[in-house]
Amino acid sequence: MPLTEPHDDNLPQEEQVVAVPAAGDGPTDDPVPGTGPADQVQPEPEPSLPEPVRQRIVSLTAAVLPGLPADEVPVPLRRVAKFAPNRRARLGAPVIAAQLAADPLFRQRVTARVLADVGDLGAAVVDGTAPAAADPVEVAALAYLARPRGWRELIDASGAAVRAEADTAVVAELVRQAEQRATRAEHDRAVARVEADKLRDELARVREELGQLREEARQLARTLRESQSRERRASELLATERGRAARAAADADAELRRARARLAEAEAAAGVARSSAKEARSVDDARLWLLLETIGQAALGLRRELALDPVDKLPADFVADSFSDSPAATATAAAARAQDTDDPARLDQLLALPRAHLVVDGYNVTKRGFGEMSLEQQRKRLVTGLGGIAAQTGDEVTVVFDGAERVHGLPPTPRGVRVLFSRKGETADELIRRLVRAEPPGRPVVVVSSDREVADGVRRHGAYPLGADSLLRRLSRS
Questions:
Q1: Residues pairing with 361 in the sheet
Q2: Angle, to 10 degrees, between the axis of helix 362-370 and the axis of helix 428-438?
Q3: What is the DSSP-derived secondary structure letter of residue 35?
Q4: Any residues with CB less than 8 A from the CB of 470 and at least 6 apart, and which?
Q5: Mind listing the pLDDT tens digit for each residue in 7-36?
Q6: Closest by CA position to 57, among listed 139, 128, 129, 119
Q7: Whole-structure pTM over 0.85, yes or no?
Q8: What is the rounded distance in angstroms from the CA atom of residue 70 to the CA atom of residue 77?
Q9: I need a labelling partner for 309 at 20 to 30 A (CA). Which of 20, 226, 293, 409 fits?
Q10: pLDDT digit string (tens) for 98-152?
């Protein structure tokens, strides 16, 4: 905003402020009143200052304001001089600007302080030879305060430089926006091409289905015509058959009497047959018991022959101890496992399978079900709930957490629940996949995780992937 120098014509001639350059100041363009009204020079209007220049002038003045003697500070600025440095330029800007424009003597006092602080740059501005590398805003602010010869041209040059910088910034922003739009357009074109290919494939499929439907419609129409023809023939035969039915009814009554007699004979024979069947079933039960006993004895003999001792470790325990990769399950074993399902009741069905192994992606379940708790509370609540499931089903339960969040001094885990943390450089997802690969083909393994990559990975190795919501609902029922 422009800073103006009002001239009060109502003051006596001897009370008019005379602009006296401070020591070291250069020539000034401020009017110096003469001894008579005829020698009075009308002051030129204040120039329109660029906003950065105006702010710099106010900032320089606010910085030196507290250093001026109290009698040299205008009355409106004495309260502003007591403000904190960060509030002085911001809150006192209007008053400072008005005093600089209206009070040349005050401006000269401020200029003397500012030029002493800036050093060589202030001397160069006063001499009218501002360095080309100097900040144009700083040069314009010093020129406005010192007002050497040609100071208006320095301010105009600063305004041009500021406008040029603003225009350059605008152009750069426009170029950046244009590049972003071009990138988005290219991405949209690529997506459109992919969608077009999908639509063409879909159109071909729909056309093929339409052809099949048309062929089915022709077959149905032909079948309908044949059915109508058969219906007409059936109506004709119906009348003939009604006559025959009347005759057959009479014959049926006679036959019914004979059938009742045969039924009595059959009931007597059925009693004898039931007695024979009961004896035969007793013989079959004895044979089945003997067969099962033979199989059991054979299994005991095979165990003794192979010298198989009872095991105290399960496959998941070896993964927890060594973190070593196990051979991947064969494609045949993976195909033999059940497929993915999100049915909540499916979890209970899978846990009812013999020797089932439940593997849980810990933080994936806790942050989905009770993420407002701390990590320690999340782990404790999940492990406690899994302990209840292990106690109810007797299944093997393993819960896996990311090792980056591992803490020492964990509470004892419930019986039947194994808690694992992935080691450094390994994620919980990778550890879950290794646990699944370690299991023998044919054993039901249930993996609970809403992570799509985890579900796809364990499904390839024959596990049963389920969403976290199924386990959360199961825990809420416990």
A1: 400
A2: 130
A3: S
A4: 342, 343, 344, 346, 347, 448
A5: 333 333 333 333 333 333 444 444 444 434
A6: 139
A7: no
A8: 10
A9: 293
A10: 888 788 888 888 888 888 777 777 777 777 777 767 778 888 887 788 788 777 7
